[in-house]
């Protein structure tokens, strides 16, 4: 298959979005064509997934000059890690359309398409300037969605999330420029390809630490890592369902992806030296956000804190310096994207139908909407990591990885995960299963429509398929993890 297929996957949504913007105002037409576009991309990604050779390194590579004077190239490709996340994006976005099908405007669907181009370009970029370009491109449509279709003080929310993310992006951009200048000073030519920047030997250790932290600021805000999380709660609460889905299920995962793709190869010694601190920070975030979730009455805010808790756990796995933790973290990226994405979409539907957002105002949904309840339960069980689900496999691997890294931290992680499941199960019992109290107004809640069930069906199947047959999926990215541990970090890969 031609390497140009990746470029087609990146730019098709943007081209279609611009075409629809200029040619039609009919919302249904725009939505239908947008859905068809994402379905075509899914078919192409499935073809790539089948043809991909796990031990073949970087594949489907395109590397052509872009701004030749400064060595900036249009350099894209994918390995087992990026392929797995690409597959996740390709499945989640078109199926999410079926949950967002009604009541949306032209701008909503246009922005959804533009975001898909941005996130795909970010994922596949191997030139750090190109990566930065797509990183900014993916954020702008989300800002527009929050500002245009959000709730409450949506203007302030948009400004807050913009300031936070742009501050992190600015630090990353400064670090990118420094690396480019350092490469030019050492080798006499310009390049911003990450594999070329790995060859720099002249940067002092203290400077490397600051560059590492600059990249971490940009990626840590997006994940978010404690204490860079303060933007997330109001943003999730006041954002439209589509924007929350994109932020939690896809963009947060790209923050983790970027740490593995760029920070580990560029700063391997810093990554190893500070790994204990970041594992500890990740576990602290797991505990802190879990406690914060317990204190929430707004169901959206509860899921926001729950999402941050899981992402902190993923971050801890990434810094565990062994294949158990890193494989588990990569697997949890997919598992959490599926579970949290579905839960946010279902909560959005529930809010639209009932008009309620607080847990105490809900209840009795199980009787009104049994199919909704079943799928909600599956995703919640995957989210808390019950046996048989993909969440269980991924969380267990991370616990093993942290235990191998540090026995004491391993015990803490296991205990915290068990405790953290309690608040989600309590919320499910109170908001979904429990009958409404006497005197409360009648709950208006319909069950899921056929297209909504069809949209969520692949997610339910993946929860159990990944839970019972994890090796089928891990075989795609395990060689990449081994490469990072053996060849880049040179610490050996445990099996």
Task: Characterise this structure.
- The protein has 495 residues and is mainly alpha-helical.
- The chain has a domain of 222 residues.
- 75% of the residues lie in helices and 3% in strands.
- It has 20 helices and two strands.
- It has a two-stranded antiparallel ribbon.
- A hairpin with a 4-residue loop joins strand 1 and strand 2.
- The radius of gyration is 22 Å and the shape is globular.
- The model has no long low-confidence stretch (mean pLDDT 85).
How would you summarize what this structure contains?
With 495 residues, the chain is mainly alpha-helical. It has helices spanning 4-23, 27-51, 80-99, 106-124, 128-149, 154-187, 194-197, 205-222, 232-238, 241-266, 268-273, 275-294, 299-318, 323-354, 365-368, 370-384, 390-405, 407-433, 450-468, 470-488; strands at 59-67, 72-78.
Give the helix/strand layout.
Elements: H1 4-23, H2 27-51, E1 59-67, E2 72-78, H3 80-99, H4 106-124, H5 128-149, H6 154-187, H7 194-197, H8 205-222, H9 232-238, H10 241-266, H11 268-273, H12 275-294, H13 299-318, H14 323-354, H15 365-368, H16 370-384, H17 390-405, H18 407-433, H19 450-468, H20 470-488
Antiparallel strand pairs: 1-2
Helix pairs in contact: 1-2, 1-4, 2-3, 2-4, 3-4, 3-10, 3-14, 3-19, 3-20, 4-5, 4-10, 5-6, 5-10, 6-8, 6-9, 8-10, 9-13, 10-13, 10-14, 12-13, 12-18, 13-14, 13-17, 14-16, 14-17, 14-19, 14-20, 16-18, 16-19, 17-18, 17-19, 19-20
């Amino acid at each position: 298959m031609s390497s140009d297929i990746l470029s087609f996957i990146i730019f098709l949504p943007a081209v279609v979005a611009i075409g629809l913007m200029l040619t039609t105002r009919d919302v249904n037409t725009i939505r239908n064509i947008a859905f068809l576009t994402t379905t075509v991309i899914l078919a192409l990604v499935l073809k790539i997934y089948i043809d991909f050779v796990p031990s073949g390194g970087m594949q489907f590579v395109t590397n052509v000059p872009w701004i030749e004077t400064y060595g900036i190239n249009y350099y894209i490709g994918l390995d087992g890690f990026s392929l797995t996340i690409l597959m996740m994006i390709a499945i989640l976005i078109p199926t999410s359309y079926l949950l967002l099908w009604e009541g949306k405007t032209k701008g909503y669907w246009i922005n959804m398409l533009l975001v898909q181009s941005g996130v795909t370009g970010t994922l596949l970029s191997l030139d750090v300037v190109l990566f930065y370009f797509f990183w900014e491109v993916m954020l702008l449509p989300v800002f527009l969605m929050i500002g245009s279709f959000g709730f409450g003080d949506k203007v302030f929310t948009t400004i807050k999330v913009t300031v936070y993310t742009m501050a992190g992006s600015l630090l990353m951009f400064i670090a990118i420029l420094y690396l480019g200048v350092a490469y030019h000073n050492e080798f006499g030519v310009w390049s911003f390809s990450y594999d070329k920047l790995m060859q720099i030997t002249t940067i002092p250790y203290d400077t490397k630490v600051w560059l590492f932290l600059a990249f971490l600021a940009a990626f840590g805000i997006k994940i978010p890592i404690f204490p860079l999380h303060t933007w997330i709660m109001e943003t999730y609460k006041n954002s439209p369902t589509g924007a929350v889905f994109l932020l939690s299920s896809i963009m947060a995962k790209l923050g983790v992806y970027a740490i593995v793709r760029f920070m580990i190869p560029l700063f391997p010694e810093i990554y190893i030296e500070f790994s204990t601190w970041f594992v500890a920070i990740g576990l602290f975030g797991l505990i802190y956000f879990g406690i914060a979730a317990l204190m929430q009455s707004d169901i959206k805010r509860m899921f926001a804190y729950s999402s941050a808790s899981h992402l902190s756990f993923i971050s801890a796995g990434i810094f565990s310096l062994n294949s158990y933790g890193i494989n588990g973290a990569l697997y949890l990226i997919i598992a959490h994207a599926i579970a949290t994405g579905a839960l946010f979409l279902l909560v959005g539907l529930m809010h639209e139908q009932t008009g309620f957002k607080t847990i105490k105002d809900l209840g009795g949904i199980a009787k009104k909407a049994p199919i909704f309840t079943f799928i909600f339960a599956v995703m919640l069980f995957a989210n808390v990591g019950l046996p048989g689900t993909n969440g269980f496999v991924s969380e267990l691997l991370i616990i093993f990885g942290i235990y191998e890294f540090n026995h004491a931290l391993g015990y803490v992680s296991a205990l915290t995960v068990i405790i953290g499941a309690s608040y989600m199960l309590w919320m499910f019992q109170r908001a979904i299963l429990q009958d409404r109290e006497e005197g409360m107004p009648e709950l208006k809640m319909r069950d899921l429509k056929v297209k909504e069930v069809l949209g969520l069906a692949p997610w339910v199947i993946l929860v159990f398929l990944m839970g019972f047959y994890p090796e089928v999926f891990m075989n795609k990215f395990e060689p990449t993890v081994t490469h990072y541990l053996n060849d880049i970090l040179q610490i050996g890969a445990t099996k």
